[in-house]
Design brief:
The chain is an alpha+beta fold and about 575 residues long. It is about 45% helix and about 25% strand. A six-stranded antiparallel sheet has the order 8-7-6-11-10-9, sandwiched between helices. It has a five-stranded antiparallel sheet with strand order 2-1-5-4-3.
Length: about 575
């Protein structure tokens, strides 16, 4: 088929010499044996050879004014050709691209050479594309080289994604446990590696969704996002977009934003408004889910970069959001735990204050009753009941003190009155405080103080509280006629206190739990709060020491704890606050 001058629009970008001899040029161009095409500045076909038209099964006039994608060229190949055209026009040099190209027998690998044709002003706006079929050897080599390059690109891309996820995870999990700060951090982590725009929306307690973070590749465009609705109401009938993702918990991937998509989303105005405002070309929306609950969603938008999202991009975004969800959920749990701890501490303080006042009245009344009856009739009964009342109030007072101490330990701060104290004196004082109970039960006490004058820096009252707790348990669980050893020794630069009994011992499965809060022996004769040993552990650790227990069922138990050894023999008593 011959191509006449009237069959083609003459491009203004053609050189003057070529335009002068246009008929002969077009005749030669049409007769080229290999496919050849002339492209304008937008990538549309201006003219082609007869062979080039036959490749697509059309006449010469059927190709004019069309892009590669409109002729059935695969989108990926069309994108490569367009990128090569832009590169050739910009650099002014020929670019070669090897692709499968249509021929009469199907597809055959060709070398497509894109050569820029300069105009009179020197600008390369028109590009000549010639397609030469490769020989069999060239095609094999080309395909092998292409596969190698693809494999290398995949490996490099996988490595970049692993590095991105590792850095993102490290950044998220080392951030202070603040959910709102993490939302902002997540948005900025996604830009520019994953998106030109990143928007994070969080579910509220009620029926609303709030935008909590926005990041943009171009900070000067940030005000666009502020023009969007910052709070929208949830809907159960949203066909696409954020509200559908929040409702279903499933990600949404749109490789290309089209007019048909915008029309389909018209029922939910906020979504198409967002896409138009941000000039979105492609987008992904991924839910933030943790422990089966949806926390919110992240919208990744490609605009100016022209990136088209695919399944690999969605997988990376989902991995990022999974890790972010765990970090955000952990931050929420930490915040709830801290608020609960503060509330518990406030409650304990109020309750203990309100209990101590009436308890003090009861204790005073019991003391007066014990003094009053004497030898009067019925005096023995009054004394017995007053003694019971006093014992009960003493026990209640200890329980209140235990609750307050545990609350302070969990809150992270316990006031300690530190001073230099004799270890032998601490052992002797603890022994004397427990001696009446031990002798009443027929137990034998064996003090084992350190042989030399050893001193430790500690809170004397708190250390005696620890030893009293350990000795009280030993008396409780040791049968009549048993032995109690109480002593201390210097080991590895520390003072090691120990309390050893000949009681029934502790079962092996229970031993790891004895310092847990609220834990109690199942066969305990009397029940308490289960906080005694937990408080003892907290007090010892507040001093910088450690506590442990060893036991052999049927032979007894040994509890030991360490305190720092003081090198000074005496120093003024000081007051400080030590974190537990």
């Amino acid at each position: 088929m011959a191509l006449g001058v009237s069959d083609v629009n003459i491009p203004s970008a053609l050189p003057t010499s070529m335009s002068t001899h246009l008929p002969s040029f077009l005749g030669a161009f049409t007769a080229l044996p290999d496919p050849a095409y002339l492209l304008d500045a937008t990538g549309r076909i201006l003219a082609c050879s007869a062979s080039g038209a036959r490749a697509f099964g059309q006449g010469l006039e059927g190709l004019a004014g069309r892009h590669w994608g409109e002729l059935g060229v695969p989108l990926e190949d069309a994108a490569r050709l367009e990128a090569a055209r832009v590169q050739a026009s910009t650099r002014g040099d020929a670019i070669t691209v090897e692709l499968p190209w249509p021929v009469d027998a199907g597809l055959r690998r060709h070398a497509l050479v894109l050569t820029p044709l300069p105009s009179e002003d020197g600008a390369a706006s028109t590009v000549l594309v010639t397609a030469r079929p490769l020989t069999e050897a060239e095609a094999v080599y080309s395909r092998a080289l292409e596969l190698e390059q693809l494999a290398r690109a995949e490996v490099e891309q996988a490595e970049r994604r692993r590095s991105f996820l590792y850095q993102a995870m490290t950044t998220l999990f080392t951030h202070p446990p603040d959910p709102h700060g993490m939302y902002t951090l997540l948005a900025h982590l996604a830009v520019p590696d994953l998106a030109d725009w990143c928007l994070v929306d969080a579910l509220e307690q009620g029926p609303f969704v709030s935008r909590v973070a926005v990041a943009c590749l171009d900070p000067t465009q940030q005000e666009r996002a502020s023009a969007l609705p910052q709070r929208i109401e949830k809907r159960d009938d949203a066909p696409v977009g954020l509200l559908r993702v929040l409702r279903t918990g499933e990600s949404e991937l749109v490789p290309a934003v089209t007019d048909s998509l915008l029309r389909a989303a018209a029922a939910e105005p906020a979504h198409p408004t967002l896409l138009r405002t941000l000039q979105a070309r492609s987008y992904m929306i991924v839910p933030l889910r943790a422990r089966g609950n949806t926390l919110g969603a992240v919208t990744f938008v490609s605009s100016g970069s022209g990136r088209r999202y695919g399944p690999d991009d969605l997988a990376l975004a989902e991995d990022l959001c999974l890790r972010a969800s765990l970090a955000i959920d952990n931050a929420r749990l930490v915040g709830e735990s801290r608020r609960a701890a503060r509330a518990r501490e406030d409650l304990l303080a109020v309750v203990s204050h309100d209990l101590k006042n009436p308890l003090g009245v009861v204790q005073l009344g019991a003391a007066l009753l014990l003094r009053g009856p004497g030898a009067r009739p019925g005096g023995e009964i009054v004394t017995k009941q007053a003694t019971r009342i006093q014992d009960a109030t003493d026990r209640m007072s200890r329980l209140i003190s235990d609750l307050l101490d545990w609350g302070r330990l969990e809150a992270g701060g316990l006031p300690l009155e530190l001073g230099e104290h004799s270890v032998a004196g601490l052992v002797a004082e603890a022994m004397e405080s427990i001696r009446p109970l031990a002798e009443a039960k027929g137990l034998h006490l064996h003090p084992q103080p350190p042989p030399e004058d050893v001193r430790t820096r500690c809170d004397r009252t708190r250390v005696l509280q620890v030893m009293g707790n350990l000795l009280g348990n030993a008396v409780k669980f040791t049968p009549a006629g048993g032995d109690l050893d109480v002593g201390a020794a210097v080991r590895d630069g520390e003072v090691c206190f120990h309390v050893k009994d000949t009681g029934a011992g502790i079962d092996a499965e229970a031993l790891p739990h004895i310092f847990d809060r609220y834990w109690q022996a199942r066969d305990a004769a009397s029940r308490g709060t289960g906080l005694g040993l937990a408080i003892a552990k907290g007090l010892v650790e507040a001093h910088g020491g450690s506590i442990q227990a060893r036991s052999t069922p049927g032979k007894g138990s040994t509890f030991s704890f360490t305190l720092p050894l003081s090198s000074a023999t005496h120093s003024p008593r000081t007051s400080s606050r030590v974190d537990a």
